[in-house]
Amino acid sequence: MSTDSILRSKIIDGKKRSLTIREWIKSEILKLKESYNFIPGLAVIIVGDDPASHIYVKNKEKQSIESGMNSWKYILPSDVSEKEIIEQINKLNEDSMVDGILVQLPLPKTSSVSERNVINAISPEKDVDGLTIINSGKLACGEDGLFPATPSGCIILIKELSLNLAGKKALVIGRSNLVGKPIASMLLKENCTVTIAHSKTKNLIQECKNADIIIAAIGIPNFVKGDWVKKDSIIIDVGINRIDNLDNPKKRIVGDVDYEEAIKVCKAITPVPGGVGPMTIACLLLNTLKASCIRRNIESPIYNFTV
Ligand code: NAP
Q1: What is the pTM of this model?
Q2: Long-range contact list for 50-57, CB < 8 A, 24+ apart?
Q3: Does the beta carbon of 150 sit less than 6 angstroms from any atom of ligand 1?
């Protein structure tokens, strides 16, 4: 095999996998419509006018509709009060057409609204972002629930490498509620030996060198270097960082791992873009489908996707 094809064979293609998941969701929604005469629906609340957040929400809306779901978007002004956001959430909690509710984060920096209060106002059975205290607790306790989409996407990609994960040393770099902590719980459930690193961790390079699996969720471009990585390790790069492009005014997106160097050493790696990113929306739609079946007491193969 040429060097090029060896390197290509190491790429974990999240874009391709997310497409197959979305096709599967589409076919399940058609079946639900025929058998039970309903269509799952996702409601998204966005506060303020941050362009990046609006792009994320637009993509969620587009992919929900393409999958055959109902989709609703509520745009609230950046000076909206916590009470008004929670009133909107309560309306959606009570709306029987709505299966999933998501508040796009982060809320505007200028807002004095508590993100935790807002998130916890979402009914746990409609919490398709898996961020309420109830669903976070269920994940930490190893119970079934609705869990955050990005970590779920990472686990689907790792599991498809068909490794025996039991006893593998997994290093999660980052301890956010959105990514680091839930993915650590999920890896623990897979019987990995999990280390969580953060900005105060000592000897991070050595921790990386010891790890069979590295999940990088830091938010610093190309932070994990190729020579930190153990031979034959699995690398999941969650980072999405926009950096300047030398010969092009458009920004370029890179991950938290120095991809060009790491791919030469590791066994498999997710690219950025095209790795974890596309899996996030696919897993959000999976959660919405799952929430819709649970709420209506419908047995569904969606449960096979539980991570
Ligand atoms: P976050 O809330 O800012 O958390 C970053 C974590 O990295 C923190 O726990 C921080 O440690 C740790 N960290 C910072 N500097 C470090 C250092 N020098 N050494 C070790 N750890 C360090 O970010 P996040 O929301 O988890 O997101 C992380 C990245 O993933 C971002 O690039 C984000 O854009 C991306 N992301 C991608 C998706 C997707 O769909 N692919 C979804 C969500 C997020 P402390 O806790 O000590 O501060």
Answers
A1: 0.96
A2: 50/108, 53/104, 53/106, 56/104, 57/104
A3: yes
User: Per-residue pLDDT tens for 145-185?
Assistant: 999 999 999 999 999 997 899 999 999 999 999 999 999 99
pLDDT tens string 64-76: 999 999 999 999 9
Pocket test for ligand 1, best of 181, 206, 238, 259 (most atoms within 8 A of CB): 238
Tokens of 68: 């055959």
Last residue of a domain, one of 123, 139, 167: 123
CB burial of 270-299 (b: ≥16 within 10 Å; e: otherwise) equals bbbebbbbbbbbbbbbbbbbbbbbbbeeee
In short, whether 215's Cβ falls inside 6 Å of ligand 1 is: no
Burial label for 166, CB within 10 Å (0-12, 13-18, 19+), is exposed
Look at the block and give the residue holding tokens 């819709």.
292
Phi, psi of 173 (to 5 degrees): -100, 115
Mark whether 116 and 171 lie in a shared domain.
no
Range of the domain at 181: 149-277
Q: Domain tally for the chain? A: 2
Nearest CA to ligand 1 atom 34: 240
Confirm if 31 and 62 have CB atoms less than 8 A apart.
no
The token pair at 273 is 């873009």
Give yes or no: residues 183 and 273 share one domain: yes
